[in-house]
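Students often ask why we bother predicting the structure of a whole assembly rather than each chain alone. The short answer is interfaces. A chain on its own may look different once its partners are present, and contacts between molecules only exist in the joint model. In this exercise we take two input lines together and write out one structure for the complete complex. Read the inputs first and try to guess which parts will touch.
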Amino acid sequence: MTEKFDIVTAGSAATDGVAPATQRNIPHRGGAANPSATALATRFPGSVLRTDVVWGETTVMVARADVLAIMQWLHDEPSERYDYLSDVTAVEYRDFDQPIEVVWHLRSLPFRRFLRVKTQLEKNKELEVASVWGIWKAADWMERECYDMFGIRFTGHPDLRRILMWEQYKEGYPLRKDFPLRGRFSRAEQLRQALSQNPEAKYSMEELSIADAFEDLPEEMRKRLGAGERTGE
Amino acid sequence: MGLATRPETRSVSYEPQSQEGWVTTRLDFLVNWGRANSLWPMPFGTACCAIEFMATAASRFDLARFGMERMSFSPRQADVLICAGRVPFKLAPIIRRIWQQMPQPKWAISMGACASSGGMFDNYAVVQGIDTIIPVDVYVPGCPPRPEGLIYGIRMLQEKVMNERGSDSRLRDEMVPDPSSQLYIPPSAIDELSEPFGNSVHQNRSAP
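Now the answer. The structure tokens for the assembled complex follow.
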């Protein structure tokens, strides 16, 4: 019988065989940096722009062009093994001239490390960054949410469409600073557009729960569904 | 407790000059009595109000005392839609479809501030009151309402049901949307969505 999953014990790959304990008495700034940050700066000189340590958490600012290579290296390198992507999100600052930052939260379970990787996207250019979906499948929905809320395009994502708002949503990207709190359209127009969405558009009848009862459906309905007819208005 | 006393509605008075005869009013009373005391709720719980709703249905407050012991999780066997919680725009077509799947007679309770008016969520994502989508009979205020509040709203709905008259032709009128509008769903689509329905294979939702 083949193992379906690799079982990783947290901290099992630490050098001295002892799992790193939770740090205590952490200074606000200038604590001990994650060793991965130093290794990253050695491996990719010029791509690592800045390293900050705040409350014991290390943030690495990297160049946008090298995001994918850095992530791949962090994932594959035997001395890093960042096998868990816990978040992909973005930050926009109130100062309009400041670029939008995309943030990845990485976790290395074997080494019990946490690393925050950031990159900056200039606002006056195309908001595009490489997708890490090929490395961590967990990036799928998080990148979709980031695209939905900020309009950042993740190149290489297999299915980049809105996830929280419906797909025909036309008002823009709600978490951007220039987005008005109540949206851009009138309430009546918002409701009209919301009601005209088809929530089942991406699913065929077979995929919905009716699939369980498919065999019990009338003959002609089964025939129509088998021919690919969609539900909805 | 500061609540206004309302007139007694469960007794039927017979006025000879009235157009409604004694038999029809007694029949109305019987039908309404049956309906009011066996309202089956369709819980549409999206937020914290649903927690209070669960508490209402649980043993301490015991909704079964008012004939609501059966939560109807299928809209096709439900009488009352209880919308408990905020409704985002993405859910708007879904709650509307649930309402359309419910057979007449049907009523709706909007539970809590968010369902009634959008509440504190005056933003781009939340419907400002479900009465912009479906007709609502009783609004229960509160954030969230206490179970007593919901029970009071249900009692008000029961009174409303008791006051219905079968001779009122406008009672079950549903708005017929203009086929050119986005609100329109053709009867064939409604029938397909709502079958099987009731005890008869010939019964469907789009029938007048």
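Check your guess against this: Chain A touches chain B through 24 residues (CB under 8 Å).
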